[in-house]
Design goal:
Blueprint (H helix, E strand, L loop, with lengths): L2 H38 L6 H38 L14 H6 L7 H8 L3
Helix pairs in contact: 1-2
Bound molecules: zinc ion.
Zinc ion binds next to helix 4.
Length: 122
């Protein structure tokens, strides 16, 4: 793998990581803010609507957090692979993944050929 490309991908990954971590921290904060607002307007909304809203907000937060955690894991995995020098190697066939693909999807762990095969269910 080209050193320059690898460096570029690493920077991209670190940037994404910072973004994800900021977003993850933001989920809890937004929630606390909302509760504070509700507390100062106790008459806001119909009770059943309010509950439904609360449940859906909770589910969205959980889902968002789950996605962020998964992304963070992918990013950390890719960063670790860069350190170990195993980055960009397809986990199925052991061949190098196309650098162009990695620039678009920096935490791809399978090459296009394997991914296509997997998606086809073969
Ligand atoms: Zn492969």
């Amino acid at each position: 793998m080209n050193e320059e490309i690898l460096q570029k991908i690493k920077e991209d990954l670190l940037k994404r990581k910072a973004q994800v971590e900021a977003e993850e921290g933001g989920i809890g904060k937004a929630d606390a803010h909302e509760h504070a607002e509700r507390a100062s307007f106790p008459e806001y909304g119909d009770e059943s609507d309010e509950n439904a809203q609360e449940v859906s907000q909770y589910t969205t937060d959980l889902e968002a957090e789950r996605v962020l955690k998964g992304t963070l894991k992918d990013i950390n995995g890719a960063l670790k692979a860069i350190e170990k020098g195993t980055y960009g190697i397809c986990k199925y066939c052991g061949k190098e993944i196309d650098a162009k693909r990695l620039l678009v999807r920096p935490f791809s762990s399978a090459c296009v050929a394997c991914k296509t095969k997997l998606q086809a269910g073969a």
